[in-house]
Amino acid sequence: MMKEVRRKKLIGKWALVTGSSRGIGRSIAIELAKEGANVVVNYVSSNKKANRTVNEIKKIGQDSYAIKADVSDRNQVQNMVNKVVKNNPIDILVNNAGIVEFQPFLEITPESWDRVYRTNLLGGFNVGQLVAREMVKRNKGGKIVYVTSINQEVPSLQQGIYSITKGGLKILARVMALELSDYNINVNIIAAGAVLTNINKQQRIDFPGMEERYSSITPLRRWGKPEDIAYTAVFLSTSPDSDYITGCTIFVDGGVMINNTWFINKID
User: In the chain, which residues have pLDDT < 50?
Assistant: First the structure.
């Protein structure tokens, strides 16, 4: 008996994934490619890491290329979108780019506020609006996914600006879902729990034992992997699997949001 080959669900689709040279974004780009999508890899600093992601996608058998653009800069985002749509459509957008800076509230500086706000929230608006305009113009619908955090609901110590911007992204995505529904564009949110990436490496150093404490209060007893977020991004990017889902948040957090989270970073 011949082995049945599973049909990939994103064949012929093009995805743009911001911040996909490493970490969660890289994993999302690769999993989209495994499902048959071609992927544009956006990055802001490391061309080497971006091309590493591109090469891995090509080994899977999908088309891919990298574009450098700082999502906080409107002109750079516009140029990126123009270049992409000149070569191929954008069927899927995953807005993943983000940064975090750890500071107690009383020590937050205007400069830090500006950096985190501009990348996380303004960047999410820049990319979301400019890509949505192209999707509307093309008139074939689309899927937009925002990667946020459980901090969109509950703040963590020394992550004030990050938490505020993630909360802003939640409302941004809901506004988009409401206003873009007439164009058959779905907009949804993945609220990630703690995921082992470089972005929280300093946090784990600053708060000794945090990794173990977080695991102890997480019902599934572990931190997330980038792939955990990526699998959900693929689901929200796929028709017809997620066609009747819009304006929603899926918590990919090991169940921590059904537990108390205020003491994750607390040191006795």
Answer: none
Q: Which residues have a catalytic role annotated? A: 162
Q: Is the pTM of this model over 0.85?
A: yes
User: Radius of gyration of the chain from Cα atoms?
Assistant: 18
pLDDT of residue 161: 97
Map out the domains of the chain with their CATH numbers: 14-258 (3.40.50.720)
C-beta pairs of 110-114 under 8 Å, 24+ apart in sequence: 112/161, 113/161
**Chain centroid to CA 118:** 16
pLDDT at 51: 97
HSE on the CB side for 176, CA within 13 Å? 30
Given this model, what pLDDT does residue 255 score? Answer: 79
Q: How many CB atoms lie within 10 A of CB 199?
A: 16
Preceding omega of 240 cis (within 30 degrees of 0): yes
Give 101-129 pLDDT, tens digit per residue. 989 999 999 999 999 999 999 999 999 99
CA nearest neighbour of 162 among 115, 211, 232: 115
